[in-house]
Amino acid sequence: MITGLDMDRRNLLKWSAIVPLAAAAPYTALAAVPQGVDALVIDRRHWPAGTPTPLAGLAAPQLFTIDGDVTQLWYQTLDPIWRKPGFVLGGVTGSDALFVLEVLAGDRGRRVTQRRVLDPVVAGLQPVSWIIAPHHPSVKG
Amino acid sequence: MAVLPPDLDAPGFARFLEELRGAVGADWVWSSEDDLGPYRDSFSPVWDTAEERHASAAVAPAEVEQVQAVVRIASKYSVPLFPISTGKNFGYGGPSPNVTGSVVLDLKRLNRVLEVDDRRNFALVEPGVSYFDLYRHITERGLKVMIDCPDPGWGSPIGNSLERGIGYTMPFFRDHYGASCGMEVVLPNGELMRTGMGALPGAKTWQEYRYGFGPDPAGLFAQGNFGVVTKMGFRLMPMPEHYRTGLITVPRRRDFVKLVDHVNYLSDAGLIGEAVYSSPLAPLMAQPDFLALATKLGGPADGDMDAAASAAGLPSWQVDLQFFGPEATTAASWDYAKDRILSDIPGARALDGDHFPLPATEQQMLNTTQPYRSAIRRFGALGVPSLGMWKIVSDDGHVGFFPVLPRSGEAVFEMQRVLGDALKEFPVRPFFNATTTPLYWHSFAFQMVYAPSVKRSDPDHNAVVHASMKKLVAVAAEHGWGDYRAAPIYQDDVAGTYSFNNHALRRFQEQMKDAIDPEGILAPGRGGVWPRRFRK
Ligand SMILES: Cc1cc2nc3c(=O)[nH]c(=O)nc-3n(C[C@H](O)[C@H](O)[C@H](O)COP(=O)(O)OP(=O)(O)OC[C@H]3O[C@@H](n4cnc5c(N)ncnc54)[C@H](O)[C@@H]3O)c2cc1C
Questions:
Q1: What's one GO MF term for it (chain B) (predicted)?
Q2: Which residue of B53, B90, B166 sits with most ligand 1 atoms within 8 Å of its CB, as the best mutation to test the pocket?
Q3: Based on CB atoms within 10 Å of each CB, which residue in A45, A140, B33, B226 is the most buried?
């Protein structure tokens, strides 16, 4: 179960380092991550095979990883959380995974409040950084 | 793009919205462009063109009485409503209506699983219940039933079955409308009706005997526009003890004819789940010579295809078979299938596949241990909802044309040739070619698939897609093949092909529509059925 988290700057930088986008892009993405984000999602497809992941260095419950398919993340974690008020989620994922999350979030009164398309497209995969936050009065914290 | 309902001015629309707010609460009525974005069809090939259909508002009631109130208000103002359950009808129009200016009646808040009985094997649900919700309800309670779900699992038993959608387990269950039993419906006058045994006060068999007595109108609500379904029952498969797979290959092109006949027998006798046909020759389409052969105008000669198969050392066809039941029964059924087919088709081969007790482990679900290359997706096959199929979505989505054809090898060859030739004028990939296999999704008929992708940034590409869809609908109909389901922008084209005796079916439906929904407020145009008010 995720609780509100306070991701510090060191962790944010670590998070950015495992997303192999153009040098400046992850930082640009992170600059868009506002205070008060409760958890982050990263898409493993954005880092090259064989690259060691420094995930262990991050506070585990605060960071979710997917391989493009959001089924498990959503079913196990987000669906129960999104049924309650509050919870701001940030991420850098493929645009396909974001589309699915955005539709699911919409069902629970949430919106993509920030969206930044990142370079480069790797293997046909468009990375996007985003924030999904409560929008409807029924889920505003 | 803000739009108004047909025949209503802005002040009238404002009064209408105010009444809706009074009925369901101000937070559950939306009319701003921003709020209506999710009610557009994000897969639309006519995105941002004059042909795109836009809602004027959306309303989300929380209970049946509120649905009735919304219907009565819509009737008072003559505003068309477009009911959706979970609104995930991607590829067939998404949540967008047939008529611009309609108000989407979003039933997502009616989301209770009312009953699951694992002794009599049924469920009763509300429209906002998704396959994930139903699966969660069943697994959390350890109930011994398996659901049959379509992809992706975020759709709903009610929305999907009202589209006559399909899944992937046993024939009784994977035709989702066919597996339904009992409906509760809000009629266009706001009255509540129950079908089948639900009409008999005190009956305990609403989800067991679908007919009740007299004419059964339930079919009118599938792909129809005669009411808003607020409850629906579904038969569920008792959780099988064991799951078994096996693969049959046949060497020659014409062997497909006998193979299909045998598999029809196995399926209609209740021995197998969905049979998944494929051609091991399909990867050869990457080679220009083979591509030219398999897409040859008028179709290739059998001998040429057989020569290509033997040069590549590949069989022409294969079918993945699946068995559900007690372990010994699945083994006996597989032995029977092997004997039956191998003794009749020279050169046919059988490969034993995975088998294991249910429920499956995570590794078994991922299908990593099959000793051959299998076309089965275990999540669908074992009734576990997933979103993983989103990986097949390319560009900005797709539209779908799924013509129904007879379950015979000859019919498959004919459709490959006729629709392959019909598509040649369009710069799209050869969906229909000499390696294309049928889908055995519906229980007693085949379908083939044309699902070209759409690109919002490329209107020329979308125009090609749009024109090719219309052409295929027409050409297929000339050969007796009809689409089973269509997006609103194609529903008139498809309905127009079901034209026996000067469109007697459509005229009958229109007469009923005019009698039951004189204001034409419920999903006008859905299924190609237009009320008098909107008929041209
Ligand atoms: C990658 C991919 C794979 C897919 N695979 C499958 C598949 O395996 N099988 C399949 O069948 N489909 C499939 N689809 C199509 C579609 O996603 C599903 O059919 C989905 O279940 C339909 O959406 P829904 O269940 O939310 O229904 P909804 O969108 O809620 O409803 C569908 C339509 O039914 C009518 N309707 C809905 N509820 C009511 C009501 N309560 N009263 C009256 N009318 C109502 C409306 O006209 C509505 O537009 C696939 C789509 C994609 C993109």
A1: D-lactate dehydrogenase (NAD+) activity
A2: B90
A3: B226
Q: Are B29 and B59 in contact (CB under 8 A)?
A: yes
Among positive and negative, which fits the CA dihedral A13, A17, A21, A23? positive
Q: Find tokens 């050969």 and name the residue.
A: B479
> Domain B113-235 carries which CATH code?
3.30.465.10
Contact (CB<8Å) A79/B132: yes
Mean local confidence (pLDDT), A6-21: 41
**CATH topology (fold) of B242-280+315-363:** Alpha-Beta Plaits (3.30.70)
> B9-63: per-residue pLDDT in tens?
999 999 999 999 999 999 999 999 999 999 999 999 999 999 999 999 999 999 9
Distance from CA of A70 to the nearest CA of B (A): 7
Q: What residue has token string 């994000």?
A: B42
* pLDDT for residue B134 is more than 80: yes
Q: How far apart are CA B30 and CA B98, in angstroms?
A: 19
For the domain made up of B10-106, give the CATH fold.
Answer: 3.30.43
pTM value is: 0.94
**For residue A121, what is the DSSP state?**
P
This model of the complex carries an ipTM of 0.94
Contact B86 A107 (CB under 8 A): yes
CATH topology assigned to domain B498-534 = Vanillyl-alcohol Oxidase; Chain A, domain 4 (1.10.45)
